[in-house]
Amino acid sequence: MTTTESKLPSVDALLRLPAAAVLVERFGRAATLAALRDELAERRRNRAFHPPPPVLLDAAADALERRFRATQRPVFNLTGTVLHTNLGRAPLPPEAAAAAALVMREASTLEYDVETGRRGERDDHVRALLRDLTGAEDATVVNNNAAAVLLILNTLALGREVPVSRGELIEIGGSFRMPDIMARAGAQLVEVGTTNRTHARDFEAAIGARTALLLRVHQANYAIAGFTASVSLERLAAIAHAAGLPCVEDLGSGSLVDLASWGLPHEPMPGQSLAAGADLICFSGDKLLGGPQAGLIVGRAGLIQALNANPLKRALRLDKGRLAALAHVLRLHLDPDRLRERLPALRLLTRPAAEIRAVAERLAALVTPRFPDRRVAVAECRSQIGSGALPVDLLPSFAVTIEGADLPALARSWRALPRPVIGRIAGGRLWLDCRCLEVDALQAFAKNMTTLAIGNGPPVP
User: Fold this and answer.
1) What's this model's pTM, rounded to 2 decimal places?
2) Which of 97, 197, 357, 433 is a Cys-bridge partner for 80, taking CB atoms 3.0 to 4.6 Å apart?
3) What's the rounded Cα separation, in Å, for the pair 253 and 51?
4) Is there a contact between 20 and 33 (Cβ–Cβ < 8 Å)?
């Protein structure tokens, strides 16, 4: 059959077809028109075959689906890392997400005092809650903990020196390093001690006329063991105060409750740090706190006032949605007896191993029929807390494992599902850790699997 450009229909002819009307209704006329033109242009470049109009419309529909599909989608986190940085860290309580959605779609009292009819302050939505939960004189919030460190140093140490132990010069996710943040803040880093041993005398010797503050950084995403020495917060605060300097602690994850009461390793709490003598504490809202991304700063009222007067505060402030979600999560912490059942992050971190195993066994029963040529089994494993929190502490868990050749292709097939399933490859197996897969999600997981190809690889010898 001879194929020429004349055999291709015009854009107008395609737009008159009922299927095109459906696309216009769903995606809009402009986007549909662009997709049809792109498809026709591609067919003109490829003269080997000119398909009939229904095929052209189907191709345009596929292109429109790809263009309009959200790039940030929910996934099933079966990596074994609960607070996974790349997967959004802490899952919000549904009520917190609803609180955020409500104020995002309506006018709100973000910076409006209904009693006086005058301008209000957005930090007031969380200030009293943070004071109550930490015992601090005052509090403020910014968009993440790195921003909190930046704001503190730019406000209190611009053009001045800040001694920090060499063992605390951390690198966080995305290759952001504490020395780089300090430099951007305009502070001059003064390294004291060695990687594994820092003493009080090292800080005392580093204090000079240009010293602005003493900074302690929690070793959030690593641990130094063996022949070590460090300066306690109490001792560091005493050294700072003797020299007339503030003592600041970057807690990293931070927790407002004692995790040891749920069988987890203890994580430093802001209230304890303030009691130990720290003048300012900063920590994250979306890690162990279980809330939205935020950087929380608590401490002495005068220092908080100085932070809020810095023009950078406006650039780093929280939007109304995250403020609403954070306020809800903070209110949950006022009722610690019911916190585990109401805060998803804490619930996932404290799930009993037997409960996880039961879910893994049910998941294995769903997975096995789809992979007749591979070994599917339930195996013990260890989950991680994630996001730098308690890095050397692992949680007992259970996973469904799948063996066989070409594991990367197998992992891709799981990620290609309507709701991507994210596992991990280790030891010649694909591991689907069930710590973050709860019983009430199994039905949705099974439905999601229906498009997964059966077989998916050569048999295991």
Assistant:
1) 0.90
2) 433
3) 57
4) no
